[in-house]
Amino acid sequence: MSDSPYKSPETSSDAESKEGSSSAALKGGKGQTTPFDIKTMPPGIPYIIANEAAERFSFYGMRAILYVFMTEHLMSLSGNLEVMSETEAKIWQHNFMTAAYFFPIFGAILSDWLFGKYRTIIWLSLVYCAGHAVMALVDFPTLTQLAPRTCLFWALSLIAIGTGGIKPCVSSHVGDQFGKKNEHLLARVFFWFYFSINLGSAISTVLTPRLLEKYGPGVAFGVPGVLMAFATLLFWMGRNKFVHIPPTGNRLIFEIISWPGIRAILNLIPLYIFIAMFWCLFDQTTSAWVEQAKHMDRVVMGFEFNPAEAQAMNPILVMILIPLFSYVIYPAVERFLPLTPLRRIGIGLFLTVPAFALPAWYQMRIDAGGEPHISWQLLAYIVITAAEVMVSITALEFSYTQAPKTMKSFIMGLYLLSVALGNKFTVWVNEYIQSQQEAGNSALEGAAYYWFFTAAMLVTAVLYVVWSQFYFGKTYIQGDETAEDAAVQ
């Protein structure tokens, strides 16, 4: 990366690379602790991109069918159907998401403090693979003699530790491969990196629901497991092509407790609390929206969509909307209103309000005995994905600029805690609903459930606007030796 503190000694191989030698001939490995002094693409990048596509396929494929599996396919130890209620399944689904986005902070610390990115990724990928293996066995209680819910708990726990632990390390590992001479290629690589995430997600959220429908949970969960094993193998194959930046040791701890570190954390925590409500609503596309799709007319041109397949709309729309916002919408708005990062996030938070009001309206029609068409859900996906582009991507970039240089992985892990907090809020609401149901009362039934979260999002967005007027952060620019205070609201 452009602010790398490491300098390569001048060697004959360096001189050769300066003259434009092929990066394919370069050797990485444990001894390569500085970026290659080349102008071309680092040799380890193809392994990282391929690994990310396969890993994201496995995660999103498993997640896409998890809610449907728990509400339609889960069995008892005796092999009889024993499914969860809608509320209980939402609690499990969002507790899993909470854990998956809680562990990144520990992955970032372990990576930067003790083990380095490569070892952290490879070891936790093996934990990840074990989780998928256990997940594929949940549907065979008579074979394993394990209660399916117990098996499911351990499978989701292992997957959450694995996916969460590697999450803050992978993108930083990409940046580690670049030095001064080829940093101009970073934008291209991160485009393909993000593209691979959404491509893997789109394919898996279409394929795995069909596998569940045709071949059952064992195959549907097994295929993502095989892809995760393949992803781990690909990453291991690139071990001698990678640059391995060593961990910083206790330096990380001193940076976190330093004044710049504490200031950055205290500045960003309120922002992440506001963004948590966005994730609370957005991640319900994997649960509440799937349940709603079950009660909609899903036939399009003679083809009936699976309720879980609608989730594929999000990654497909992301690939469409990112260039649309970057090259058309943002430049057009900038002619009339400067779009600072905090303004973009604020607009995205307000945009999330109608994104959940639309499903509330659909649910009112369903509650009245109607059967709205699934195309209406596409409209809601367009709105919430537009909000995602403005909130999620902007917040990631903004967090990176507000983080001191030696704390960027840690701040990324801290940002992901906002996703965990948002999902935990969903869990708390559904646990309250469940407690009321067990007491013989009703709470937030039907459309009221959606209107509650719509109102919560509106209140959050208004409070965010007030807070953002008082934000005065410090921007750390890569390659600069000084940081500048900047009002960015």
UniProtKB/TrEMBL annotation:
The UniProt entry lists the main location of this chain as membrane
CDD domains named in the record: MFS_SLC15A1_2_like
Write out the transmembrane intervals. Answer: 96-115, 122-140, 152-170, 191-212, 218-236, 257-279, 312-333, 345-362, 374-398, 410-429, 449-467
Recorded topology in the membrane: Multi-pass membrane protein
- Entry keyword set: Membrane, Transmembrane, Transmembrane helix
* Annotated region described as Disordered, given as residue ranges: 1-38
Q: Where is the composition biased (Polar residues)?
A: 1-11
The cross-references to Gene3D superfamilies, in alphabetical order and at most eight, read: MFS general substrate transporter like domains
Per the record's keyword annotation, is Cell inner membrane included, yes or no?
no
Where is this protein localized, as stated in its record?
A: Membrane
Q: In which family does this protein belong, per the annotation? A: Belongs to the major facilitator superfamily. Proton-dependent oligopeptide transporter (POT/PTR) (TC 2.A.17) family.
Kindly provide the name given to this protein in its UniProt entry.
Answer: Kidney isoform (Peptide transporter 2
Q: Which organism is it from?
A: Durusdinium trenchii
Organism lineage string: Eukaryota, Sar, Alveolata, Dinophyceae, Suessiales
